[in-house]
Amino acid sequence: MHNAKCTCWNCPAINLAGKVDFRACGQSIRQFEKSPDSSQETYIMAECNRRPQLGLFDPMGITFADCPEWVESPYGYLLKNMRVMILGIDGYLGWTLALWLGSLSCKVSGIDNYSRRDCVKERGAHTVVPIARMTDRLRRAKEVLGINIDFREMDILDRENLREFIDEVRPEAIVHYAEFPSAPYSMIDVEHAIKVQHNNVIGTLGLLFAIRDLVPESSLIKLGTMGEYGTPLTGRPLFEGVFPADAVLEWDDRQWSMGGELTPRDPVSFYHVSKVQDTFNVYEACKYWWLRSYDVMQGVIYGVHTDQVAADPMLRTRLDLDECFGTIINRFVTQAVVGFPLTLYGAGEQTRGFIGLEDAMQCITRLIAKPPEPGQYGVVNQMSGYTSMRNLAEIVAKVGRQECGLDVKIQRVENPRVEADRHPFEPVFDKLPQEFGFVQADNPEEEIRRMFRLLTRPEIKQRIEEKKHLILPKVWWSGVKKEVEQIELLRQEKREPVEIVGISRSAKKARELAADVNPIQSS
Amino acid sequence: MRTVIIGLDGVPFDLLRDLAESGVMPNTASVIADGAFRKMLSSIPEVSSVAWSSMITGKNPGEHGIYGFTDLFPKSYNMRFPNYNDLKAQPFWERWPGKSVIINVPSTYPVRHMRGAHISGFVSVDMQKSVYPSALLAELEQMDYRLDVDSQRAHASMDLFLTDLDRTLDARIKCYRYLWDSENWKTFMLVFTGTDRLMHFLWDAYEDKDHKYHKLLLRHFEKIDDVIGEIADQMNDDDLLVMLSDHGFERLDQDVYVNYVLRDSGFLRFKDSHKITLNTIAPGTKAFALDPARIYLNCKDKYPCGTVTQDQREDILAELEELFGMLQLDGRKVISQMHRKEQTYSGPFSENAPDLVLIPAGGFNLKAKPNAPVLAEKDIFTGKHTQDSAFLIVRGFADDSCVPETPSISRVVSIIENCHN
Ligand SMILES: NC(=O)c1ccc[n+]([C@@H]2O[C@H](COP(=O)([O-])OP(=O)(O)OC[C@H]3O[C@@H](n4cnc5c(N)ncnc54)[C@H](O)[C@@H]3O)[C@@H](O)[C@H]2O)c1
């Protein structure tokens, strides 16, 4: 188990009580300006909220493997009935995660203000996979899966109520999805840019203060996006948030170590800017207040399936096709289903990281299972592979043809965004597999096949047809108001699409090196 | 007939006598003049948690179960910090008739129901769990009451630390005054702990009259003496006044690391030389130490990597005694006494006792410190506890023979009981 050796120091069920220095019979309550003293002159004292009978103890001693409160799960040791609060629980990921964690015996709570539903309506669109009202969702979750979810309709910006709810639940992990997730939406006009930034930045900032005051030991899993990094044209690797220990800056015949410093961010829309601002706010909060957080630079999610959402039509999670809220693979499949040529922007050679819905759930669960240390701001690049838009379109087209006999075409249209449409791309996404035991379970083609099977159902296909006119983008980064025009319709490629790259260059190299050193073992 | 107990944490017999005689503590001087003033033996080991637990219960650690500020969870090397919940014997206030007021006695956190009022002392973590009855909390907040001085401050700035120490003392005095009047008590116990903190950091300032903080240090004792005068004035003729410290103090020359010695001589091994903590003790270990100098044999069935059997015990103890008996630094013996478990502790909880406790010779301070890179060093502390030079004053008793010539701290309760009889 990836987290067997973690100790109470990582555990959100402890209360860090203070520091003692028995050399001078000294105590210093709630002072953690220093990490546990490596010289072992001072001790940090912890109390366990779950096992108060342990009294005060050294949090470095008891491991998850030793502790009866941490029980084995497929994703590592997990706290028994762990209290997880999902902010944005009505969303594409939030709802899926709620059922996923519920089925792992977590005590799930959550808030949502339905703004995603409202925004999609505002754009004249709807989710093509119909979703039930929250009350029906909750009832069905209980009836079908036996999962109880403590839900409150609430805006994260309503700080007073949020604090009250957090205080009532005392979550041991908080997964924060409650942001507007759309780049184009943030580029519509000034009102939308402000709406997105206000919601995302201020919402997160308020949350950080609430965590500080109420549940500082809880771990915050905050959703960022790979888009925070942009796509630097130098081809510099996209590290996981901070530079690795051996990175060096060379200039003017001098050298500096960059190890541990935040890497440059180059957001690609006002939405992405909000995520970057969040990154800094969370980073600072961890530094000032010893909060613990993972900032998840998430690749684009695709897919419709987990065992729980597929258990009942009323438990399905949403799926959108419009330019603002549809994400790329999901959009491609809806287009293919109704014979709309898949839309590539510009050259279509933009390369992005991707991860299937189920794998994303697995990753978040693994992060919850191995909470960061007090004061730790950890970053993971969460993706299972990367490839170009064009290749993706070809994969979707191939599966559409094979699975449903569809005549899938691909077109290039004008690119309404300001972005490089051909660029080097070398993401590093090693931490989840290496430190959290993540193993990709989704097979992209299989998941796309599943999507076709669901989306070609007549009632869903009908819903796609109804909103077909919302597929082509109209939001230009420049502010121009017009629909994009087709550049060309691509001819069907003879060759097979290339495989999605499923391992980072660095991990591959390490693997090869290890194989060289130890050829017998690797064979 | 009421009893008042005033504790001065860490104040040694000689220092108190000097301060009384030199006029810094005139009120104390007159209490001494009217009573019995004795040098007292502290607990083994000589740390506040053990000493105060012994004092308030009148028992030895074999009966009350507290052997130090740290201990291990059963069958593991995981460290815990025992507290009042672990105290296995009753404190006097649960046995004596009438109401008691108990302020700032170390190792009495978290508080529980009792007759009267109780505010715990070091180590106290959460104010809510440090005050009984909780109705007192609001009152204490008004007084800006602090459980203890923030010792980390001394590392940042001695001035800040001293200001904090002074404020802590002021608030403590306000608190005692309030409870003195508001409770209808029969026993009143108040412990000043700032004295111990001061002497850890500033023993040199006491010895050196030109030291920057010499006057400040004396000022702290003057303030405490004012309180002693105030209390003495308010007592009736048939009341009993007891003053005591839990251990003595002296100048610290060098810290000596017990686990270093054990490692160096092969008694103690670790699995990973980069991560040396008790949690990484390796098989083959015969003995390890907890602070300050409690040596435990790594017994089979008692610890995860324990191998020492009952048959081997005697031999290993003898080897350890030889090892530490010969230990010298700068031509001086480091260890003055060694106490074996069987000879030192008795009672139902003596099973958990250390197998051997070392008491250092003058100037040496013993620490466990598993990962010490050297045998001995000097850090910012200038004073250290002593076992044989605490003090006891008893005033207002009928018969001098009630107070033995060399009392020990676990006898204080019975001395008081004898006086009352
Ligand atoms: N889906 C992806 O491909 C993807 C990729 C990278 C990052 N992300 C990030 O993951 C998170 C979740 O994404 P999603 O696809 O599930 O989006 P979503 O819009 O479906 O989910 C977000 C939920 O949060 C709610 N919400 C928004 N603002 C709120 C507020 N002020 N108060 C309460 N609730 C509020 C919305 O109503 C919605 O239900 C977002 O932060 C997004 O930026 C998503």
What can you tell me about this protein's structure?
- The complex is a heterodimer of chains A (523) and B (421).
- Chain A has helices at residues 92-102, 115-122, 134-145, 159-169, 183-186, 190-214, 270-289, 328-337, 357-369, 389-404, 431-435, 444-455, 458-466, 505-517, 519-522, and strands at residues 14-21, 26-29, 43-48, 56-57, 70-73, 76-79, 83-87, 107-112, 149-153, 173-176, 219-225, 248-251, 254-257, 292-298, 300-302, 342-345, 351-356, 377-382, 385-388, 410-413, 486-490.
- Chain A has 523 residues and is α/β, with parallel strands linked by helices.
- In chain A, the strands form six sheets. In chain A, strands 9-8-7-10-11-14-18 form a seven-stranded parallel beta sheet, sandwiched between helices. In chain A, strands 2-1-3-4 form a four-stranded antiparallel beta sheet, with no helix packed on it. In chain A, strands 15-17-19 form a three-stranded mixed beta sheet.
- The longest helix of chain A is centred in the middle third of the chain and has 25 residues, at 190-214.
- Chain A starts with 13 loop residues before the first strand and ends with a helix.
- In chain A, 52% of the residues are buried.
- Chain B has helices spanning 13-21, 26-34, 48-57, 61-64, 92-95, 136-142, 152-156, 158-182, 194-207, 214-233, 258-264, 310-326, 341-344, 412-420; strands at residues 3-8, 36-40, 71-72, 79-81, 100-105, 116-120, 131-132, 187-192, 240-244, 248-251, 254-257, 287-290, 294-297, 328-329, 332-333, 335-340, 356-360, 364-367, 376-377, 383-386, 390-395.
- In chain B, 54% of the residues are buried.
- The interface between A and B is large, with 31 and 46 residues.
- Strand 4 (56-57) of chain A pairs antiparallel with strand 4 of chain B.
- The structure holds nicotinamide-adenine-dinucleotide (NAD).
